[in-house]
Amino acid sequence: MPEVRKEAAHRRAHGYGQTGSAASGRAAMRAAVPDPIGPAGWAGVPHVLRIDTGRAGPHLVVNALTHGNEVCGLAALRAVLRRRKALLRGVVTLVAANPAAHRRHDPAMPQSGRFIDEDLNRLWARARLRGPEHNAELDRARALAPIYRSADILLDIHSMATGGPPLLMFHPTRAADRLLARLPRDHHRIRFAAPIHTGRLLVEQPGLLGRQDKAAFVVECGRHGTRATDAYAVRITLALLRAAGMLRARASGPVRGVWQDVTALRMVRARSDAFRFGRPLAGFERVAEGEIYAHDGMRPLRAPFGPCILLLPRLAPKRGGEAVILALPTRRKPV
Q1: 144-155, pLDDT tens digit by residue?
Q2: At what angle do helices 227-243 and 72-82 cross, to 10 degrees?
Q3: Which of 76, 126, 149, 204 is most buried (CB neighbours < 10 A)?
Q4: pLDDT tens digits along 152-211
Q5: How far apart (Å, rounded) are the C-alpha atoms in residues 244 and 3?
Q6: From the CB of residue 105, how many other CB atoms can be counted at a distance below 10 Å?
Q7: Taking a C-beta distance cutoff of 8 angstroms, is the pair 64, 157 a contact?
Q8: Pick from 305, 316, 307: which is nearest to 281 by CA?
Q9: Which option is the CATH number for 2-243: 3.30.930.10, 3.40.50.10490, 3.40.630.10, 3.30.390.80?
């Protein structure tokens, strides 16, 4: 019961689950201080803070607010700021990626304020970044791109509408595999065989994708707006700093839970507005080859291989939208 009360208090403090003027008031309070690093910025880019230890080492970028409604990354930024004098080497850059969208976020509506004009996590193809188009997210992406490209290690922090256990996603590189071998095992791991989303992810931008000397991770920390999600964002960020030798190492506890390694192979996109799964999904459900896992209008969708693992199912995909990722268990290789 004490944990239930603490969680309820946390959600009230963030406005989640409230309606009317109380929620709106809390949203306005949050908008007044959208991130812990402030608008002053670094190298002319607002909402960016660089911490240079003055000692040789990697450059690690901690990225929060790719989506303005996913606030757990702000807890990670605060945690690094509190430990800035304990950093041992290298450079850490803290980024609040889309504070303008975050200022529109009303915690009473967890999906509000996700972006202004378009999803900041789907526009990182070279042609988009170099093209003539302008909007809030594209202009912000162009300003931030040199910072991300300069990173040796990038952690892009997210949360989920559906909840579920933490997920760490990445394109495999030698640098990523070395860090993964040093991270505590408290999350599922999803390797991408190739880019599969509609539009390139932030971690798939030019200068990161395909570079064996760089490691770029996306972490999904849990459900929007919970204490456990904030806590995991802090935990994985500090663990990555330790894995990179940038914070003093400490003994990790025993592995708890059953954690899977999978390789994402295919994104299923809805062809109609009547897409529905055969049963409620939380993610990581396994279906046999040929088994029907969803209907897209009247068309049954069968698993094209087996065991087929269903990842990150969308609650209500619309025509042309991403519906679910199909994956296989990863065959592990020695690091």
Answers
A1: 999 999 999 999
A2: 50
A3: 76
A4: 999 999 999 877 899 999 999 999 999 999 999 999 999 999 999 999 999 999 999 999
A5: 33
A6: 25
A7: yes
A8: 316
A9: 3.40.630.10
